[in-house]
Amino acid sequence: MTTISIIILIIVLGVLFYVFNTQRELVRLDELCKNAFSQIAVQLNSRWDAVLALAKMAAQYSKHESETIIKTIQARRMDGQVKTAAEANEQQGAFAQVLGRLIAVGEAYPELKANEQYSKTMDGINDYEEKVRQSRMVYNDTATKMNRMVRQWPSSIVASMLHFNEREYLTVDEEKKSAYPNLDDVFKTNNEQA
Q1: What is the pLDDT of residues 91-102, one digit of tens each?
Q2: In which band, very low, low, confident or very high, does the pLDDT at 194 lie, cut at 50, 70 and 90?
Q3: What's the confidence (pLDDT) of residue 24?
Q4: Where is mean pLDDT largest: 19-23, 76-80, 190-194?
Q5: Contact present, 66 and 56 (Cβ < 8 Å)
Q6: Confidence class for position 106, pLDDT limits 50, 70, 90
Q7: C or N: which end of the chain has fewer Cβ atoms within 10 Å?
Q8: Using omega within 30 degrees of 0 as the cis cutoff, is the peptide bond preceding 154 cis?
Q9: Cα–Cα distance between 42 and 69 in angstroms, integer?
Q10: How far is CA 29 from CA 24, 83, 148, 151, 174, in A?
Q11: 119 vs 135: CA distance, rounded Å
């Protein structure tokens, strides 16, 4: 075997080793993104369940408004079907609307707001909100790593060959964010009145 053959063999083995390792890293990041979305879906469903319980509790005070909210919850809830960033963002907006309406019902009926079960449910919603926020951050961090590998050279060549694409980021719609009260303020107010 000549020196040139050995050098070519080493280069080919190096390239194959790089492609192998890059593919493994891309698969790892892809699975982490899928897992993060799965966690978000679980948290979203738990959050919807808590809001549904709150709406049923509010039904004792405002039957018409509660029925409308319950129908909205059932229509908006995706039962773990969140698969894209756009769907997760849509769920976030829908949840903010429903929660805003429930908070308005709570404000209209002080005895509902003073109810211990109402306060516990609101605390549970706050907990789910925090879990969703953390899951969204984990997903966005993982998507950043994935997107870097998909876009940077030379890993972009391997990603392109193996059909790995950039991941969409989860965002917060600033308009929706400012349209509804900060949940921490809502929970603080509820706890002070209880």
Answers
A1: 777 777 778 877
A2: very low
A3: 92
A4: 19-23
A5: yes
A6: confident
A7: N
A8: yes
A9: 21
A10: 9, 16, 11, 14, 28
A11: 24
**Which residue type does 159 have?**
A
Three-state SS at 89: helix
Euclidean distance between CA atoms 43 and 37, whole angstroms:
10
What is the helix (H) or strand (E) element at residue 129, kind and residue range? helix 116-151
- More confident: 78 or 23: 23
Q: Which of 95, 89, 59 has its CA nearest to residue 75?
A: 95
Copy the structure tokens of residue 8.
């070519």
Please name the residue that has the structure tokens 């960033």. 85
Taking the whole predicted model, whether its pTM rises above 0.90 is answered as no
